[in-house]
Amino acid sequence: MEMNPKVNDAAEHGDLEQTMTGAPSQPGDVQNVQMSDDVFGEVGEDGPNYRNVGWIAAAVLMLKSQIGIGVLSIPTAFDVLGMIPGIICLLFIASVATWSGFIVGPFKLRHPSVYGLDDAGMMIAGPIAREMMAGGFTLYWIFLSGSGMLGVSIGLNALSTHGACTAIFVAVAAAIGFIFASVRTLGRLSWLAWVGTACVLVSVFVLTVAAGVQERPAAAPQTGPWESNWKIAANPTFEEAMAAVSSLVLAYAGVPAFFAVASEMADPKLYTRSVLSCQLVATVTYSIIGIVVYYYCGSFVASPALGSAGVLMKKVCYGLVLPGLIVSTLLYIHLTAKYFMVRILRGSKHLAANTWQHWTTWLCCTGGITIIAYCIASGIPVFESLVSLVGALFGTFMTFQPMGAMWFYDNWNKVERDWKWKLRVCWAAFVIVIGTFLMIGGTYGSVVGIIDSYSAEGGGSGAWSCADNSNSV
Fold first, then answer.
1. For residues 226-259, b (16+ Cβ closer than 10 Å) or e, as one string?
2. What DSSP letter does each residue of 418-438 carry, written as one string?
3. Domain map of the chain by residue range?
4. N or C: which end of the chain has fewer CB within 10 A?
């Protein structure tokens, strides 16, 4: 589909304000516009307005795609790695993920028809790469949706003191996720992202304070002298270390969603502002939570970490975080379903119009993703193992290697090849190499962990089990 030359030129330079009428005057405002877009086609008053996300709302959506499930496993990762190696690994992954997230913005401005990683793969390496990226993206976000449902079920179990079968709680999470994920635009979901992000941040900081003032963690011996056994450096096996690092990767692995967020921004030239704000808040939050909770709980930190500060505070923390976990789940479902809908209806009038074809396709996409994610959440009900597997197998593959390839695609043929350009070449190549290493090693470690969790005595919940899944340590 061809774009109006004026619109195309403005999109190339990120100046879309010159081409739209009725653009949002404040971040997150929702107004109707009449415009042509390389992805969504003609966007007008007779259909959903996909281009109405301000830069602050974009930053919150990015933040919510990251702060959620991953943050709950950071103290456990520190326990496996030790304090200093854990901090170093966290900051290193933060640096790589921030660079990867930044690369999305310039690439999107240079190639406004790109909606997701599959479009970038097609542009860089042809149809095979496109389908590889499409498959990886789809599986990644479906697994994240399943992780979100599992997190919600843990929260409901904690709040109700296992008041119902866990399989029922997972089904409830799936139903709620489907209903809210079926809202069609990110602009209309942005207020939920605000609520969800606030709930997660408040919950984890309440946990952090509780961990600091409690006499001892809930999982520690409740009689006799006790002192936190945190370690400056631990001595994990290769499998344990890689699984822990994979959990840290997942905490930053919302980067693949940044393409979709950028595509729905009213002014994409503000993308860099959004992504840097997102990553700064995420890194500060992760660092504080990981350091404080692990320092006070040591090896008795729970997984998820919200169960570390006693029965009462466990219920308080889960009560606060539950809306955030629900928002994470619905956002993951929405992003995956939106990808399928765009790919199915792209180039037709039904993508941005209120036709029965549009609604049928959209609801089939959200419903199908929800059902598959529910099966994953019920089939792999061990939170820590599922988080590690998703981070290793898909998080690195979606967050590191493609962004390095995108940089090479846009910058390899530059005429001026000074020392700065050479340093950037080395960095982009390093991102691809380290991403591949983490993907292979982390997947191996996570699979070993899942096998061990099933074979160990009392090794947690089984598939489609009614057992309480909120007491993992």
1. eebebbeebebeebbbbbbbbbbbbbbbbbbbbb
2. -HHHHHHHHHHHHHHHHHHHH
3. 49-221+230-455
4. N
How does DSSP assign 443-455, residue by residue?
A: HHHHHHHHHHHHH
Name residues whose C-beta falls within 8 Å of residue 69's C-beta, 6 or more positions apart in sequence.
144, 147, 148, 151, 250, 325, 328, 387
* 215-226 residue pLDDT tens: 677 777 777 777
3-state secondary structure of 43: strand
Instruction: Return the DSSP state at 42.
Output: E
State the pTM of this model.
0.82
427-452 as b/e: b if 16+ CB within 10 A: ebeebbebbeebbebbbbbbbbbbee
Q: Percentage of the chain surpassing pLDDT 90? A: 37
Residue 346 tokens, joined: 């792209």
Distance of CA 312 to the CA centre of its chain: 29
pLDDT at 20 over 70: no
Tokens 């290697």 label which residue?
Answer: 401
* Pairwise CA distance, residues 95 & 196, whole Å: 25
Q: Provide the pLDDT for residue 10.
A: 38
As a whole number of angstroms, the distance between CA 270 and CA 274 comes to 7
Domain 49-221+230-455 has CATH 1.20.1740.10: yes
* Spatial distance between the Cα atoms of 64 and 62, rounded to a whole number of angstroms: 5
Instruction: Extract the runs of DSSP E, i.e. beta strands, from 38-97.
Output: 41-43
- Rounded to whole angstroms, the Cα distance separating 18 from 325 reads 38
List beta partners, residue 35: 43
C-alpha pair distances (Å), 72 with each of 110, 187, 302, 304, 382: 36, 27, 9, 5, 13
